[in-house]
Design goal:
The complex is a heterodimer.
Chain A: E1 7-9, H1 15-24, E2 28-37, E3 41-50, E4 58-67, E5 75-77, H2 86-97, E6 100-102, H3 133-136
Parallel strand pairs in A: 1-4, 5-6
Antiparallel strand pairs in A: 2-3, 3-4
Chain B: E1 10-14, E2 26-32, E3 35-42, H1 50-54, H2 59-66, H3 74-89, H4 95-123, H5 127-148, E4 157-158, E5 161-162, H6 170-193, H7 196-202, H8 210-215, H9 221-224, H10 232-235, H11 256-279, E6 299-307, E7 310-318, E8 324-330, H12 332-337, H13 340-343, H14 349-359, H15 363-367
Antiparallel strand pairs in B: 1-2, 2-3, 4-5, 6-7, 7-8
Helix pairs in contact in B: 2-3, 3-4, 4-5, 4-11, 4-14, 5-6, 6-11, 11-14
The chains are: A alpha/beta, B alpha+beta.
Chain lengths: 142, 368
């Protein structure tokens, strides 16, 4: 891994311009987006794969957070216009963590089924046992 | 006659129950005759909520789950997970364990690549080729079973090292198996790669340019078949790969044939790696023992390995308790499959099936 700063934090407003500038450098590809549910905010980690520099490969991290302020689904600007890879990654974050990405089409569920309610990776989402078929039927065995 | 016929586009669901989708992948196709106009990926049929499950289990309890992601290369999955945990807790791995990881990991890669070759040729109706590759894989699985105790969903690599040493006479078994593997691969190569029908079905089909591949975050053999030499084992060597002499095959065509052929070339390199790792195997302890209720300090770690299908990464966030606060898998096949709607328009259905087979997806890893 190359030495030097491998990580920056930006505000939501700066996100798209920062990523576009990084992409223009030519060596980065969008590798992954991870969202973490913290008590006051959602922390997002955009990980870029850096292919540049003497054939040495490393990772570059861009952090941005979305505050939890009243609105059920906080939003961030979408990166679909910068990298095509952002499409499925953002859909995954929305599906599982409930963060809306603005400025893009087709933000729909990707891993959960279409009529699923809630966003399972949020800390307030409680995993419950699904009733078995017989239990769900009236008069079925408990 | 054809001037008076009215034609229109129609929809076709390819999958999720379809043998050529290699699991439960579902493509919603719009077709004009036999030509694809547009394609929509529908995934998630195998979603088991693994990332959520991880949050209610201790670090060690979740380890066996990881080999259910990419179930064709279970040992490599557990390696990535172990590596993330070691970074998180600053755990040192004994040298012998690193060599054993390389041996098991590369055997696993060979086994997975053989499945890819077999299922690719059977999708093109070359049924005999399937038999050759699967028979060869059987020998590799016997080796894996001798070391790890299981053929699939291997849980051998754990945080801090590996769980078992090699069984007796392992080296001679490897030697015999590799002799057999080489001769079967030579047969397979003659039978399939040079076959005119096979080439006709795969050459120039489903071409992915290097720029498009990078735009979609593709990695692994699929990217290397498009002319981009990106392999973490070479470019950011982990474990003991920097002490081993091997090459990373790169092909330029980016078509279905190159994606097929690169797997064949990579198997030969993996064989080289295993042989060298066995020669250089040092003696010493196998494992840094971690306590049962292991509590890494609060923080996060990202562990990456070059898995069979590309770069796999585990992002683990700890809050100082014995369970992960957040565990995320960056799955290479998830990125690789996302390119299908981009390249599908213009392909016929038979070419679509060939292209999909060459992308070598595993739904367990895509859907998580």
């Amino acid at each position: 891994m190359r030495e030097g700063a491998r990580e920056i934090a930006v505000s939501a407003a700066e996100l798209v311009a920062t990523m576009a500038a990084l992409k223009a450098l030519g060596d980065f590809i969008l590798f992954d987006i991870v969202a973490v549910d913290r008590p006051e905010r959602y922390e997002l980690t955009y990980r870029l794969l850096d292919r540049g520099g003497e054939g040495r490969v490393g990772f570059f991290t861009v952090r941005v957070s979305a505050e939890k302020s009243g609105a059920d689904e906080p939003s961030l600007p979408s990166l679909v216009g910068v990298w095509k890879a952002a499409d499925v990654l953002e859909r995954e974050v929305w599906d599982l963590m409930g963060i809306r990405f603005e400025g893009r089409a087709g933000l729909k569920r990707i891993l959960c089924m279409d009529d699923f309610e809630g966003h399972p990776l949020r800390k307030d989402f409680v995993v419950r046992r699904t009733p078995r078929f017989a239990e769900a039927q009236e008069g079925g065995r408990p | 006659m054809s001037d008076t016929l009215e034609t229109q586009e129609y929809s076709l669901n390819l999958g999720p129950q379809h043998p050529s989708t290699h699991g439960v992948y579902h493509a919603r196709l719009r077709l004009d005759g036999e030509t694809i106009v547009s394609c929509e990926n529908v995934i998630g049929y195998l979603h088991r909520g693994m990332e959520k499950l991880a949050e209610s289990r201790t670090y060690a309890q979740f380890a066996p789950f990881t080999s259910r992601f990419d179930y064709l290369s279970g040992a490599l999955n557990t390696w990535g997970y172990a590596m993330a945990l070691e970074k998180l807790g600053g755990v040192a791995v004994p040298e012998r364990a690193e060599y054993l990881r390389v041996i098991v990991g590369e055997l696993q890669r060979i086994a997975s690549h053989l499945v890819m070759l077999a299922s690719m040729v059977i999708d093109l109706n070359a049924v005999t080729g399937w038999m050759y590759a699967f028979t060869a894989r059987e020998g590799i699985l016997d080796l894996l079973e001798a070391v790890t105790g299981s053929r699939m969903t291997i849980n051998y690599i754990v945080a801090g090292g590996v769980i078992e040493d090699l069984p007796s006479e392992f080296e001679s078994k490897v030697k015999r198996t590799f002799e057999d593997l080489r001769s079967r691969l030579a047969d397979f190569d003659r039978l399939v790669s040079g076959n005119e029908i096979f080439q006709g079905r795969t050459k120039g089909i489903g071409v992915i340019e290097s720029g498009t591949a990078l735009e979609f975050g593709m990695t692994g053999p699929n990217l290397r078949a498009s002319g981009v030499g990106l392999d973490l084992r070479k470019d950011a060597p982990y474990s003991v790969y920097d002490r081993i002499d091997f090459e990373v095959p790169i092909l330029r065509g980016g078509d279905t044939f190159d994606r097929y052929y690169i797997h064949l070339l990579e198997i030969h390199q993996s064989v080289r790696i295993v042989e060298q790792a066995l020669d250089g195997l040092p003696s010493g302890p196998l494992r840094t023992k971690l306590p049962k209720a292991w509590k890494p300090a609060a923080g996060e770690a990202f562990g990456t390995i070059e898995s069979t299908r590309g770069i796999q990464g585990y992002h683990i966030v700890s809050d100082g308790s014995e369970r992960p606060y957040r565990m995320h898998l960056r799955s290479p096949a998830f990125a690789n499959i996302a390119i299908v709607p981009e390249i599908a328009p213009g392909l016929t259905i038979q070419d679509f099936v060939a292209t999909l087979a060459s992308l070598d997806i595993v739904l367990g890893e895509i859907d998580r």
